[in-house]
Amino acid sequence: MAGGFSFESLNKAQREAVGAIDGPVLILAGAGTGKTRTVTCRIAHMLERGIAAENILAVTFTNKAAAEMRERITDMISKDTAEAMTVCTFHSLCVRILRGGIDRLGYKKNFAIYTGSDQVGLMKQLLVRKGGANCTLKPEQILGAISKAKNAGRDPSEQEDDFISILATAYQNELRAQNAVDFDDLLVLGEKLLTEHEDVRDAFRAYYQRVTVDEFQDTNSLQMRLLQQLVGPPYHVCVVGDDDQSIYGWRGAEVANILQFEKFFPNPQVILLEENYRSTNAVLHTANSLIKHNIGRRPKVLISTRAGGVPVRIVSMPGDAEEAEFIAEEIIEEKNLAKKTWEDFAVLFRTNGQCRKLEEALRERKIPYRMVGAQSFFDRREIRDVIAYAQLMAAPESDVALLRVLNAPNRGIGQTTAVLATDHSRAIHRSVWEALCDPAFTSQLSTKTRGSVEEFVAMIAGAKTKIDMAKQNAGQVLREMIHEMEYIPWLMRGCKTEKERDVRTEGIGSIIKQLEEYSAKGKKLQSFLDAVSLSSEREDDLETKQGVTLITLHASKGLEFPYVYLVGVEEGTLPHKRSISEGTRDEERRLLYVGITRARERLTLTYCSTRTKFGKEEGCQPSSFLDELDGEFLQLCSYDDIMGREASDDELSNFFNSMNFDS
DNA sequence: GACTAACGTTTTTTT
DNA sequence: AACGTTAGTC
Asked: Read out DSSP for A213-225?
């Protein structure tokens, strides 16, 4: 085993972390302190010490992070090693666990995973069914309450509001009846399986001899319980994180997991990484001065390895339009002056709504840009439709998928029939699919409708047989089916522009091609559907797209850029208005801290006097966080200062030009 | 059952 | 300002 790393290239704390492969270990890794490198080296060290790759588990926060870690291992050691290891998110891990043993909890192994709009659609139905017509609650709010309960380790049906309890119970029953689980259930049931079945738990404990959890500050109570099931004595578990970068409290993340790690695993070795290789001292000093205002943190100070640097600028703007224009203009100027590439610049914002003005300003000036985390590829209507068809081929008893595409494209099975079918399915305690197959139901329908239903059933059943029995490539079967039902022509009719037509057609082509390639490798349709449900993978990958980066503060965690613009640093936006009522101001401060520490060379914070919110102009005040920053490396300026100076520069050059011309 | 028009709501962050 | 939903009409 060739461990391609050297102790010499690491600093003292990093070496200590790499050396500590036994017992509980807590690595507190500040921003930019070489965390990923340390973790990768630590894994390489395990391999050198004779631990087999397949006995190593590394849990990451996102699928992207998992892919990156695999890549690092590949580079440092080998592709085979990287592939033999388990590197995934908690959710993916649970899918693995559950695909193997969920039958012991009374589900069938081909369970469907409902995410996002599936859940909303289901909850909407339940609202109607349970008489929530005069109910002001939105499906998202109810789902939020359910999710919150699950992630805190509570029973979702025990809610303060009785009506929410009723809906939560109905929701769980409905999922169960449809042999489906939602995103949170993956964790709930994964933990349940390990807790209630010792043999399963012991098998996993024996298999995963070394467990590493990255971004540990973002884990919730349920994930902690899962981890405790997964790791038994002598607790060879290593968690890595930074409490100062905990920004997912709203999603149930428990900073207590990292703050009181010793409560969960006894006598851990605690290692502090504070040496920052990313940013200038000006940036780090400013960041430190902000974060020290948070109470109850693990004290830590980022130490710069790069003295000095240009000051951090705080620029006041008249409005958000000027803010966007200023940034666009300056990026052009700076790119030419300092010989930078578009990719060296990033604009960070609190909410996605702030993005539009920036986009406009960049587009007007033909500056290429890439947006991270905007609209998910998998949330697009046509993609969800195609995936629903794929889901039906795998398990037609998934009602959500079936109802989604029952009349897309129009095949004469409208709302009336859909409601009848749903009613019948409940009457016979079977899925809607089985209702459609039931002669007792179809005989009630008009001849025409019955024909349509029978045709639909035959189409899905036929496709399923081709895959299950004839072992045909699922992607090809799907392609044929989509073609024969004339889905694309139907979709095209609803498109307003040529461009929209192209984008949608291309999206469908892309998703089907992905499935074809997946199937060609011999992988099952089910695992494709899992990958799709678990992936929030955005259509535009940061590496593949070029240009200036536009990104939310949340999505920026883990990234770095030479030039960072942090816009909209206003009271009500950052800290966000809602955080004040919810008492999560500290988390907003951490969010700003995360943003600041993304910058390598130069950081610019901007705030506006007015901002357009839902089409209306509103006045705003600079963020109170700005007062907390230490002034040593700060430079305050206004839009007028900068634009005024530029105007006079122009005048000056005009003046010289005219002088030369005259003489 | 499909299409159109008016209405209302949205904007915190996402595995 | 833009999208989705709903009601009303053909």
From this structure: ESSGGG-BHHHHH
